[in-house]
Amino acid sequence: MAEGHGDANGATAHTAADGGHKAPFPPFQKDTFASQLVSLLIAFVALYLIVSKIALPRVGSVLDERAKRIEDDFAAAQRLKGESDDALKAYETELAQARARAQAIGAETRERLNAASEAERKSLEEKLAVKLAEAEKTIAATRETAMSNVRGIAADAAAAIVQQLSGLVPDGKALDRAVDATLKGSQA
Question: For the chain, how far is it from start to end, CA to CA, in angstroms?
Fold first, then answer.
């Protein structure tokens, strides 16, 4: 094998020390410990500076933005909730006013229709009263006409009956008196 890659015992140049002993783990070697500690300190300081100056401000700004956005969203939600509550109150107020107006319009319409129907009823009653009076006059006139015709018919019938039964022609004046007396008795 090539030099530095190992020997027959499997030891390598990196791990074998003089005298055939294995060398300690490189970070624990006494002669390189101080330089490794300085390197660690430099790396830690560099990492600390990078993290504190670059990474943490970015993370902090993201967290601040997120917190601000949450606060803004919460404030907007509160504002919108207030607006929706106000809108709901306004809607309920408008609805109550609309109901009141509808009831007032309904009552007014009902009163107007009742008044109109009452006026129409009175007008119809007056017309019916006039027609009834006219009908009563017509009936009275028809009755008088009929009664005058009845008197004539009764006189003719009585004359015919007397003539049929007795064979004599009755006296007109006596017949008229008898018919008048009979008709007056039936009207009373």
Answer: 169
**Which has the closest alpha carbon to 151: 185, 187, 184, 180?**
180
Q: What is the pLDDT of residues 57-81, one digit of tens each?
A: 888 899 999 999 999 999 999 999 9
pLDDT-flagged residues of the chain (< 70): 1-21, 186-188
> Which residues are bridge partners to 22 per DSSP?
16
8 Å CB contact between 176 and 155: yes
24 with 31: CB under 8 angstroms? no
| Token reading at 150 | 């009845």
Residues 6+ apart with CB under 8 A from 147: 183
Per-domain residue ranges of the chain: 26-176
Can you read off the two tokens belonging to residue 90? Answer: 């306004």
Distance CA 45, CA 180 (A): 154
Cα–Cα distance, 150 to 158 (Å, whole number): 12
